[in-house]
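Continuing the batch. This is chain 6 of the set; chains 1 through 5 are on the previous pages. Same settings as before, nothing changed between runs. Recording input and output for traceability.
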Amino acid sequence: MLFALDLIGFLIIASFLGTLFLLNQFARIPMSMQSIGIVFALVLWGIASLLQKQLVYRHYRWNGIVGCFTLYLWIACLWSFNPVQSIRYTIVFTTGALWLVLLSSYPFQKKHIVALYGMMMFGAVWQGIQLFLPHAQIYYRAFLYGVLRGDYMLFRTLAFPRIESSIGGSNSLGGWYAVLFTLCAPVIIFQNYFWEKASFWRNFLSILLQILGAACLIVFLFVVVMSGSRGSFISVALSLLLIWLLRQAWYKAFLYLLVGGASLFVPSIRRGIQYVYSGIADKARYIIWQNSWEISKLVPLTGVGLGNFQPVYTYLFQEPFQHAHNIFLNVLVELGYPGLIGFVWLAVSFMVFGLERCRQQKDRFWYGVELGLTVTVFGYLLRCLVDYTI
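Output for chain 6:
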């Protein structure tokens, strides 16, 4: 039975990777094709439950929140501005919720997670190289002539090509690779893949894997920079800062935060932060935020329906913006205050649980996995203060 459960674990991982591939390469394929992965994984989940003669399920504090939030999304389709659009988006969210419960419940071992991370990183590196290689010469020349400055990332004053892919525009691509970076970095730093006892060859292999992992992270960072996604770059930097803080004793971390907060009163530091912020939150974003707030006041309890920000915004302001460039404002506009409360509750539950697990975890490998998941949620929420895509 153990062999069968191991095999099912690898097949579930393969199904998840297949789902990511379809989403990345063919973002606009029919829902019926996008759902193949989760349907196959649920069948495997059922087989594993039959083999163990009990439901393969592990309860986490967020499962109830996810269930209630998903139910609310389906109910909100009743009063949506465009019910068909809301149903499509709700199906996507429901699929993601099923994946969350399934992946967090199945008794995966280290070898399964290594296979997942390895294939995910290999695929992302291959795609990243194909995306930025055609433009590498332009960036290299800019670097040699000293014109590749921070102004490019902040104000986009230099006319460099922004790479993008089938998953979406440049911001979506940058966001996806920022997620990959923060997810994989702690695993590479704190890796201890299979062995408990050290030996020369095991240490050699660990060093080799860390070098390869570091090379992958460099590729991810190149894609983030060349996508021109300012929020993604800032989220990576602050996520790395969070990883460093979490590695400190609590009193040291508190002291560093206290010193950092006090430094905001230094005029030169405050001006520097204001300069960076002005590069990310430009005038257009302020206008979108103000208009989004006005829409939210029209439907504070119900929202306009999931996925309906663009048609409603276009109808009211004659500008075809796809989202509010702020995930909290976007959720408020589409789902009202009940949806916003549910979303914040879910995000806080993930963060609190992740921090608790990181403090309790003794195994270096699982510590890296859990730390990566925690800082990924942190980085995503931070980035989505000025954006909404992945």
